Amino acid sequence: MNFEMLKTEIHGRVALVRLDRPSALNALCDQLMGELGTALRDFDADPAIGAIVLTGSDRAFAAGADIREMQSRSYPDTAMNDFIGATWEVVTTIRKPVIAAVAGYALGGGCELAMMCDMIIAADTAKFGQPEINLGVIPGAGGTQRLTRAIGKSKAMDMVLTGRMMDATEAERANLVARVVPAGELVAEALRVATTIASLSPVAVALAKRSVSRAFETTLAEGVAYERAVFLALFGTPHQREGMAAFLEKRKPDFI
Ligand code: CO8
């Protein structure tokens, strides 16, 4: 795939997507978001890919939506053109696991993009924040909702109302990130996690992701009923037979 603001690499069954707009700390302009949507959709449709890692540079995962591009927008235009729309939601429509590997700044839309992924692995240099309040606006790509679900009301209010940044240690303590690793090991660690996931049953992985994601959308009783239906449905797949037989035969399962 050829992009101007992204770099992509294939590592076995894992696709690595690197935001690559260094002149603006990976600010998420329309073109970059369009390219990201194309790359993610293509990898999602490719059966040779089992998981995706989304990363930025050492300095910035992404410093937010592009302020230069947004600055001249006015209310009737933004309402009529829905300028956030589908390009920003695309990550949430991907069926395969997407791991955000965050070093440096993940601010505003950058933090929101990371939170749309299925898990965040952070370098010890990562800095998360929703600084939109300093620009006279508020988060616009799910920040007030996903951050609050991730870290709770009081801390989310602290972040959203003051616009302060949170370092990697605080982010791990607050459950915003799954793990923190030294900056030099970030991409390797994310690729290791993604490679493990990509070696497992693709159907079980997709349904496990969907079931956990359900927890954010529904009641406990409905979520548990959904999980039960998925669990039972997986007994209709060859992967359940292979996984359980491999355990009993004391060998590695072959899901792919
Ligand atoms: N948009 C556009 N350009 C940016 C952005 C951005 N968000 N962030 C940095 N840049 C540019 C700078 O303008 C600068 O460009 P130039 O060299 O041409 O002047 C270059 O990147 C380097 O930035 P700095 O010189 O500022 O670097 P510093 O190391 O001094 O500071 C910071 C780094 C702290 C990250 C600083 O750049 C900063 O505060 N950036 C803005 C952070 C921010 O406010 N983000 C929130 C943006 S609003 C948002 O994300 C709303 C999301 C809504 C989603 C849906 C919308 C479509």
TrEMBL record:
Keywords on record: Fatty acid metabolism, Lipid metabolism, Lyase
InterPro entries: ClpP/crotonase-like_dom_sf (IPR029045), Enoyl-CoA_hyd/isom_CS (IPR018376), Enoyl-CoA_hydra/iso (IPR001753), Enoyl-CoA_hydra_C (IPR014748)
GO terms assigned for molecular function: enoyl-CoA hydratase activity
Secretion signal span: none
Recorded coiled-coil stretches: none
Its biological purpose: Could possibly oxidize fatty acids using specific components.
Family indicated by similarity: Belongs to the enoyl-CoA hydratase/isomerase family.
Protein name: enoyl-CoA hydratase
Organism: Acidiphilium acidophilum (Thiobacillus acidophilus)
